[in-house]
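Journal club prep, shared notes

We agreed each person brings one worked example of a sequence with its structure written out as tokens. Mine is Kunitz-type trypsin inhibitor C3. I'm keeping it raw so we can talk through how to read the token line rather than staring at a rendered picture. Sequence first:
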Amino acid sequence: MLGLIRGLSFICLLMAVSCLAQGPPVLDTDGNPVTRGVEYYVDPAVTDVAGGLTLVTRNGSCPSYVGQVPIGPGNVQGLPVIFSPRNSGETVITENTQFTVAFSAATICVTDTTWGIGEEDPETTRRLIVIGDEPAIFSISRNQAPGPYTFGYCPECNTPPPCGRPRCGIAGILEQNGTRFLTIDGPAFPFSFRRA
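Then the structure, token by token:
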């Protein structure tokens, strides 16, 4: 009987630790958990200088960068995204969930709209977030309850030789020639998630 009680206690302890490790769920603007496979608009949380996230161009190139829709006449909500947790068993995005993110849209230049980390801007040393490259693993953190949220990025370092100190960062906005790019390594930019 004592063995059964110990076994059940151990199982309860494991379940409690598992729940704590997951972190609180990321909530959309309606207060519902952000969920795998559902489309969301990523909107600025505390400013109205630009709209939601979308595909943008740089130097007349294909729209292969993640950026913000400029404020003006027409649609400023951007393109919907889909979050895919790295762990296939997870359905709710929590503050500790590692995931990939992709636009739920097509582009004429590349077929894959999954976000990756692109080149470093030589003037600012900030890394641009791109699509159609190696998918990057992101996470979401909260600055204050109940939001707004920020995107974080930290590269994996699983293969020998050890990569040393990884270059992690928080997503922010870099404005160049009137275009607002989503980047890593600058001041954090707060976002909210609105179900499409």
